[in-house]
Amino acid sequence: MITLSALQMKDIVYIEDGTKIGNLTDIEINVDIGNITNIVVATKTKTLGVFGESREIIIPWEHVMKIGHDVILVKKNGDFPTLQIQQKEDSSSSYQQ
Question: Gene3D superfamilies, from UniProt (predicted)?
Fold first, then answer.
């Protein structure tokens, strides 16, 4: 058994080329059947210069190939939806597609 907090400490990496995507921030669960449907991965892009823009990628659970000691390997197949994270003044987050 593994906890969500233990999963959040692992890097998410593409199995094909070893590119680090980011870190797990959340999981989506279908409560009707009790299965994980997606993992949510926080990424940072450097489109805004030194500071970067935070985004979250939703990766289907079927793309998770292996959960290792330090990394979670996922296959790079298709275009995953991304959500942009915007910080509000009260330090809570909101999501925008």
Answer: PRC-barrel domain (2.30.30.240)
Domain, as residue range, for 60? 4-74
Question: Residue 40's domain is classified under what CATH number?
Answer: 2.30.30.240
Total structural domains within the chain: 1
Q: What does each C-alpha distance from 71 to 18, 25, 85 come to in angstroms? A: 10, 14, 23
Check: pTM over 0.85? Answer yes or no. no
Between 44 and 69, where is the model more confident?
69
